[in-house]
Amino acid sequence: MMSLEDKGSVQTQTKVLSQGCWTQVSCPCCVSKQVEPLVLIQLSDSVQPVTKRWLISLIEASKRHGGAALLAHPGEDECGNVIVVSAPRCTLLRATEDLGLCKKYRNEEMASFSYHDRDNFTNVDDMQEFLTLAERQYIVKNELDSLQAQKKQRIPGVPEAPGVLEAWENICQKLVRAGVIKDIFPLHDQQRLNDLGRRWYSKKQKWRQPLDAIQSYFGGTMAFYFSFLQFYTWALIPPAFLGLVLTFPLPGVSGHMVQAVFSMLWSTVFIEFWKRRSSSLSHRWGTWHLTERFAEPRPGFHGTLGINPVTGRLEPLFPEWQRQLRVGLVSFPLVGLFLGLVVLGMTGFYHGEALVQGFHQDSGSLFSGVLLYMPSIAHTVYTTILKNVYHAVAMQLTKWENHREESSFQNHHITKVLLFTFFNNFAVLFHIAFYKQDLPLLRKRLASLLILNQLVNQCTEVVVPFIVDRFLSAPHKKKQEDDLEMDKLRAQRRLPPFPGLFAEYIELLVKFGYLSLFSCVYPLTAVLLLLNNITEIPGDAYKICKLFRKPFSAPVSNMGVWQTAFEVLGFVSIMSNCWLLLLSPHVQEFCLEGGISGKNIILVAILVEHVLILVKMILAFMIPDEPDWVRIKREQIEFNSMQALGKQKL
User: Fold this and answer.
1) Looking at residue 466, what is its pLDDT?
2) Which of 503, 625, 533 is closest to 226 using CA atoms?
3) 306 has which bridge partners?
4) Domain range list for the chain
5) Where are the strands (E) in 445-595, listed by range?
6) Which CA distances in Å does 55 have to 166, 407, 524?
7) Are the CB atoms for 529 and 451 separated by under 8 Å?
8) Looking at the whole model, is its pTM more than 0.70?
9) d(CA 472, CA 464)
10) Contact by Cβ (8 Å): 489, 42
């Protein structure tokens, strides 16, 4: 808890919104003379001035008095529907320690930031150098989300029914439900955004991205995604080259077998080396020592008010065993039910397809020919509806499980969706491969999926953004240039919110599954994925910079559960490729010539599978998850933290 001396009475500061910055006249704990606008709170058009003044005073009040200890400006005037928010230096520094961020110490080494030792860190007097723009904006959002009513009270200017705040109720969530707050989003720095855009999606930067600039402006979540996408693109070159070679059959060489073994080994090496790359980036960006479990609970968390036994803070408490019961007894069965519905839909599709084909063979009419397309259409509609329903159910289930940390909430939600996505995208391919055992059909189906995805990707990643920016957004841009009085904040409010990276990761994961699970039957898989990624990087960068609002980004140390999902697919690829090898013409011919029975073939396949799993485990063990220099730096930080704690006790 901050003292009044540390926090200051923030609401007594005089500020002027001039050329995009506040000018601070008096602040006893802040050295910087100018504070940039970081976050915009968009209020309802019908909000009362008294409500806006009350919210501003709450934002600016010290934490001792239940406020957020931030800086707030009413925008155009007190009757407007925006509040622009920033943060004083002391609030930013204390939040840096609470988040567990590492910053450069005076010896130029990274160290866990400590507020009491702040003068020994470099650039600590200049917040724009000490913290990235994404970190400063996230801290403001985190402080706003932490606002809680100290006692039961009425919200001024809001009708009595929705305008009553209960004690310790989250204020921002209440204001959203009451219709006072419409949205909260970080503000773009247009000059920095334009500079980043020129460096990022320029035609000269196909294979190298400004990752540090991306992390500084958009945050670690975005930077890790694009770093992984770049790493994945480079890693696709060896399998793409092998696929091109194996496309032309070589005498005496089984391309099927070579591709299968290579895919199994490649997926393991790729994931292990990405872990090393990820740990290096985490060290460079100072996020490998985060302390989210000790931070304030996420806004949606609820429970019985009590003292946290770890932090000693008064906050909602929810027993872990109750959460586990909800996950085990309700969430798991419901997820299993939906997975069963996926299998049921696939079974119905094949049954309907057989009926229609039989009917067409008997009648041969134009009508029966049209009916041939009905099972595919019905199955597509069915899976689309099921997917939308499941996504809504998965979100509600995860909210009901009541996770304290945001990362835990995201991990459980993503895991649920990933299970459904895996079944929905790969069930048909597994059915063709292992039930029908029809390699030509599997090759045809995989090729059609990849080519269709390539065409759709070219449209969504290149054509659609170009049309939107050139023809739909151009009139607004011209109007903005002509109207010198237009508020820059209004222009950002017109942009749609960024939908997140969920769909992008799902797309990468599905295509990685095509490569690692089934590429032995279609060697050109890696070639098509490489071509797709080359356009994916500038396309995604263009959309993020041009077509959406700037998103908030919490500090992260890796890709989270997405990394685990890629590891699981790499493990499943061993089993998939082993059984696909059994269907290889060369293996079948070898078994027939050697007189090996079907039972013995299965035993041999199981043996080979276990040997390859062992090889995978040995490879994973031999390739450390982090380079030696990162491990040494991490251990040094842990040792220094222990020494600092010992000195404090003395």
Assistant:
1) 66
2) 533
3) 315
4) 39-187, 211-285+319-350+369-426+437-468+500-644
5) none
6) 16, 29, 59
7) no
8) yes
9) 11
10) no
